[in-house]
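TA notes, week 10

Several of you asked for a full example with nothing omitted. So below is the full record: structure tokens for the whole chain, then the designed sequence directly under it. When grading your own attempts, check the secondary structure regions first.
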């Protein structure tokens, strides 16, 4: 049950940022600073976030990415939300890394639909040197040659591997922190929160842009969400892309019976991230099939400006492209670059 303080405010002050420009560029937000933003009355929070969002991104555009599982299933991690974990019986079959022709076909289809970034995910705990990684490097080179931004999510990487990915033409590396450090161990025991932070630092050293975020609706508290946000916005430099996922309750995973998430909780997290990281692209990722058009519009209004195109995100369902194009048309947004 939320217990956010709602106090009368001068309406003119809704457009004055809670956090100053100097604070937004500082290296560390305190827990108190995060709380001061997160716990504002939602109408004030969304107004402030929307004002900052349109100051940073005045074009009213939504960037579209596509995500393809290039190696599915059999992951040794025990992430409680993941159908690709070898620890759970979810019906997901283990596959080999896709061929270049298969990835090329998917990437071209994504580009034709309006996506400007193509993301490739492999169900690995960590990157291991060898034929599979060499093949992934070729996939990155191929997608880059098609005129798309490239992104990979492959698990943990070392500095040499990150540099090889950079040399192959990788623009972004996705590695989510998932939740707060305190709640994390209730969701994953096979990899630490510190491991995830270290991977992001390794990627950053190689001059690859960072894409990171987490999942809402796993049973975390508002305190966990505030600390999750604090961890993200205190990364230095701030991530170029922030991903907001809503739990997709997959039969066979430990979280399949979790209660539904209040849609306004998603709006609150998006708005808080926008205020504290005004220059980052914020993507609504997994779980949009559970959001109606009103919820997604409120998220756009609060600062989200990116979505994934395509009917599947790795193994999870996603709205089809025609639905998304209709949503953008109804809400007055347009695809980036169109």
């Amino acid at each position: 049950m939320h217990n956010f303080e709602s106090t009368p405010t001068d309406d003119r002050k809704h457009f004055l940022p809670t956090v100053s420009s100097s604070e937004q560029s500082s290296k560390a937000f305190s827990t108190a600073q995060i709380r001061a933003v997160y716990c504002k009355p939602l109408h004030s929070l969304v107004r402030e976030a929307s004002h900052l969002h349109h100051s940073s991104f005045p074009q009213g555009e939504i960037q579209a990415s596509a995500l393809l599982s290039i190696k599915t299933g059999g992951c040794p991690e025990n992430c409680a939300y993941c159908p690709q974990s070898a620890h759970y019986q979810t019906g997901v079959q283990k596959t080999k890394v896709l061929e270049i022709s298969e990835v090329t076909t998917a990437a071209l289809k994504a580009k034709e639909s309006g996506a400007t970034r193509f993301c490739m995910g492999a169900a690995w705990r960590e990157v291991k040197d060898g034929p599979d990684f060499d093949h992934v490097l070729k996939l990155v080179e191929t997608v880059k040659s098609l005129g798309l931004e490239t992104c990979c999510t492959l698990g943990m990487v070392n500095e040499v591997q990150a540099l090889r990915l950079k040399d192959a033409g990788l623009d972004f590396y996705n590695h989510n922190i998932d939740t707060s450090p305190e709640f994390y161990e209730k969701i994953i025991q096979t990899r630490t929160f510190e491991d995830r932070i270290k991977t992001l630092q390794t990627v950053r050293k190689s001059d690859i842009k960072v894409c990171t975020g987490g999942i809402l609706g796993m049973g975390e508290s508002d305190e966990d969400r505030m600390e999750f946000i604090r961890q993200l916005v205190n990364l230095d430099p701030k991530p170029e892309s922030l991903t907001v996922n809503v739990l997709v309750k997959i039969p066979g995973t430990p979280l399949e019976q979790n209660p539904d998430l209040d849609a306004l909780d998603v709006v609150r997290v998006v708005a808080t991230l926008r205020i504290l990281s005004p220059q980052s692209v914020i993507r609504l990722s997994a779980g949009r099939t559970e959001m109606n058009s009103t919820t997604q519009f409120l998220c756009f209004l609060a600062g989200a400006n990116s979505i994934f195109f395509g009917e599947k995100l790795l193994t999870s369902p996603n709205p089809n492209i025609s639905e998304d194009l209709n949503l953008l048309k109804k809400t007055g947004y347009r695809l980036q670059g169109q």
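Residues 176 and 272 are 18 Å apart (CA to CA). Use that as a sanity check on your answer.
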